[in-house]
Amino acid sequence: MPGASPAWTADPELRTDDDKPMVNTAPTDEMLAAYATGTASPGIELLVAAHLTYAPHSRARVAELERLGGALLASTEPEPMENGMDDAALDRALAAIDALPDPGATPPARPNGAADAPLPRPVIDAFGGDFDGIRWRFRLPGLSAVELPREEEGGEEISLLRARPGVKIPQHTHRGREMTLVLAGALRDGDTVFGPGDLEIADEAHDHRPEVHGSETCYCLIVLEGTLRFTGRFSRALNLFQS
Amino acid sequence: MSDEALLCRIAEAADRGAFAELFRRWSGKIRAFHMRAGLVREQAEELTQEVMVTLWQRAATFDPERAGAATWIYTIARNRRIDALRRSRRPEPDPHDPLWRPDPDPTPEEGFAAVTRDARVREAVQTLGEEQAEVVAMSFFAGLSHAEIAAELGLALGTVKSRLRLAFNKLREELGPEFSLELQDD
Q1: Is-contact A212 A218, C-beta < 8 A?
Q2: What ipTM is given for this predicted complex?
């Protein structure tokens, strides 16, 4: 069975027990909670959304947190409109509904790119919406990458990596945590093999040198934490709103 | 009529009366949710209008087997807030993705659980004391760290931490050990 799986399969049946990593390869509870509460940074949000495609167990945990969100919302004391304008607000909402386009007019289907693209939908969308249109840049023989434009100086770096079998991923200098989500193929770091949907978190202290495992091309999403530290992650989003 | 039934009326019959009732029940809570998250009143009011219209538009995608109305409304309010703040769509996993790994078959017990499970979580939240519920909501809705909550409420950090710990212990007690997630810590 090892090595028999097709080029980028996400089928857990095709992974052997030998491949099962002994370390935790899911996002941390903190990351899942930030995603469920809507307070995650854009990079963490993309990483978790991509991971959830592969991970029913993590989806169940996010669903549980969303239930808590629903329960907290239901028990929230309502905030009335200023000056008792609640009826006017309802009238405005009804007028907005009347102005909606005919629901029969279905929105145009999203461009799908290659139907058999080895990347999950949220990642394709983040990198332009079309797998075949991704503008890979040569890094080293067998290794290409593409980066999302950084939102701000010192902010997190979000990039996509494509590595051929046998390639060793070059060592990074970590300023903060580096999070690598395998999207297709597999990476091996020491004794641990990371398959599709698995996340490796490396910090400054962690000396790691992952390499492509097996005979398939490996794709990964990498989020490198920025140097900026935000207290209250949400305040950052609020700053964007003001600009 | 339950919230779930109101949403089904909107989906099946474009029922404006059902929408008006849903608006009366939820718009004030959604407004409070956005203000707790740090939006100023004007932004919160505008976003609430958008959320309510989105509920109308998406009512057909509401699936009571998957989530209760409160949970579904929460996710829409949260997503609209992110979309508005970022001016881009929140990334979400897509169940139609060819790479999607399906859920394992639910046990018979889980099969009819969504609305029941929602109700259980709601009951558990209601068992929290007011002080505990407040720190959980601040942490959950605003993404505030423990230190920020302490500063905002004028409490010692240790007090905030112990209230959150008590709250989550209580939720675990009510909901079972699988409810093990802690919110952001410092």
Answers
A1: yes
A2: 0.90
Measuring CA to CA, how many Å separate B30 from each of A75, A156, B25, B68?
A: 11, 31, 10, 16
pLDDT tens digits for range A15-58? 444 444 456 788 988 889 889 988 888 999 999 999 999 999 99
The total number of structural domains that make up chain B: 2
Instruction: Please tell me the pTM assigned to this model.
Output: 0.84
Q: What is the CATH number of the domain that holds B181?
A: 1.10.10.10
Same domain, B17 and B79: yes
Judging contacts by C-beta atoms under 8 Å, the chain B residues touching residue A231 are: 145, 147-148
Measured between CB atoms, which of B24, B43, B145 is closest to A231? Answer: B145
Structure tokens at B74: 């929460």
Q: What phi-psi label fits residue A141: left (phi over 0), alpha (psi between -120 and 50 degrees) or beta?
A: beta
Among residues B89, B116, B145, the one where a domain terminates is B89
DSSP symbol at A164: -
Please name the amino acid found at residue A76: T
Q: Is residue B110 in a domain?
A: no
Using CA atoms, how far apart are residues A26 and A178, in angstroms rounded to an integer? 14
Domain span holding position B61: 3-89
How close does chain A come to B140, measured CA to CA in Å? 6
| Structure letter (DSSP) for residue A107 | P
